[in-house]
Amino acid sequence: MRVRVLGSAAGGGFPQWNCNCPQCRAARDGSPAAAPRTQSSIAVSADDRHWFLFNASPDIRLQILQMPSLWPRGDGRHTPIQGVVLSDAELDHTLGLLSLRESGRVQLHCTAWTRAALETGSGLLRTLEAYCAVDWRPVRLHQPMPLRLAGGNESGLRCEAFPTFGAKRLAFGSIPPNAEAVVGFRINDRLSDRTLVYLPAVQELSEAVVAAIRGCSCLLLDGTCWRNDELIRLGVGRKTARDMGHLPIGGEDGSLRRLADLDIGRAIYIHLNNTNPALIEGSPEWSAIVAQRAEVAFDGMELEV
Fold first, then answer.
1. Any alpha helices (H) in the chain, and if so which ranges?
2. What is the spatial distance between Cα 120 and Cα 58, in angstroms, rounded to a whole number?
3. What is d(CA 128, CA 33) in angstroms, rounded to the nearest whole number?
4. d(CA 81, CA 73)
5. Degrees (nearest 5) of the Cα angle 183, 186, 191?
6. Which of 31-40, 114-123, 221-230 has the lowest mean pLDDT?
7. Do 204 and 247 touch, CB atoms closer than 8 A?
């Protein structure tokens, strides 16, 4: 299975346009230790010719331009992108769908809750459907599904969603959240039988979440904040990481301390907020991650799982 990290930052990217925290200042000053990053999304393929996007960030056009495997082939209009799989309905994971309207048809995999949120909450799906056809493929919790090519043939990938939703408040009007609101994915390559877990948002490593992670070949894990009160300390926000639905990396109850117990082949932090000091290569936080034999994702990172 081939995996490309299209974007490794959380919503707003890095540096964020209106933030002057120490990390964003370092990135704007051109520090080689503070590599800029676009908003979180990955591309996955079983054959290096047909690709599925997991989340579609607002930066998707730039991300496609930076990945030749996603460029059109032959004459005229073409895309190797076979479909988009959504982990939630957040704008930083869905606004890129509008940039795919020129394809004429989008194969969209998401839960019924996410579909409703995009239709009656943000209205994004209704806007997309005004420009192109959308083929909805329902994602059901704990039910493995084959990811099929646009023509209907199997791609060689299977995908299973599991809930990661906690007490996060979601900005989708009157739609009450449920277990389908935020999910992670186990992505399996049928030929190699190796598994990637994509988990860009998780509030707690509960027993159920740990069971979904354990034994995977590679884990792309929520790395939004280093500290729970990170935004509050910097004076750039009033919410904690957990208030926003994200388990912090550091601390006694952070995710980094749990990695050693998860029995996984490779662990990589993704979806890093611009306030996270682990974005700075060589920082104490970055070094603590590396000391645990984990990694920090960067844009353009390529994995063979």
1. 22-28, 60-65, 91-94, 112-116, 124-129, 207-213, 230-234, 284-291
2. 20
3. 38
4. 12
5. 155
6. 114-123
7. yes
Q: What is the pLDDT of residues 218-244, one digit of tens each?
A: 999 999 999 999 999 999 999 999 999
Domains within the chain, CATH numbers bracketed: 2-304 (3.60.15.10)
Residue 4: the pLDDT is 98
Q: Which amino acid is at 195?
A: T
Is residue 139 within 8 Å of residue 145, measured between CB atoms? Answer: yes
Considering the chain, what is the average pLDDT of its residues?
Answer: 95
Q: Which two tokens stand for residue 159?
A: 């995908």
Percentage of residues of the chain with pLDDT beyond 90: 91
The sheet with strand 145-148 has its strands ordered as 145-148, 154-163, 183-189, 195-199, 218-222, 267-270, 295-296
Q: What is the mean pLDDT of residues 94-112?
A: 97
CB 291 within 8 A of CB 278: no
